[in-house]
Amino acid sequence: MFNFEKLEVWHKALDFADLIYRDTRAFPSDERFGLTNQMRRAEVSVSSNIAEGSSRSSKTDFGRFIEISTGSLFEVVSQAFIAKRQGFLNDDQFQKLYRAAEEQSRMQSGLRKSLAH
Predict the structure, then answer these.
(1) How many CB atoms lie within 10 A of CB 39?
(2) Confidence of residue 78 (pLDDT cuts 50, 70, 90)
(3) Which burial class, exposed, middle or buried, applies to 17 when counting CB atoms under 10 A from its CB (0-12, 13-18, 19+)?
(4) CB within 8 Å of 65: residues ≥ 6 apart
(5) Which long-range contacts does 27-36 make (Cβ < 8 Å, 24+ apart)?
(6) In the prediction, which pLDDT does 16 show?
């Protein structure tokens, strides 16, 4: 088992990815290389940076990867606002995505703070 597999924050990032992939499946086909791809790539970066950071030899390095992961999470949230404004996400989908992102952000913030000590 790899170190990152033991992290609840990584598992939650995978759950968030499932949500993003599910919701973006219904986006218009002309957005396949636009917002759909952008949201998916940013979300994949969330879990990927957690995993990559866990391999680093110092807590400081790991913390930097958590910061990058959090930046990617914020990208997804910003893109979700655009998707909602364009009518690609309904209010319920947006709220579920937003709440999941808030939870992910809190978990990542807690991990980052624990690595700073």
Answers:
(1) 27
(2) very high
(3) middle
(4) 49, 50, 52, 53, 54, 56
(5) 27/83, 27/88, 28/88, 31/88, 35/79, 35/82, 35/83, 35/86, 35/88
(6) 98
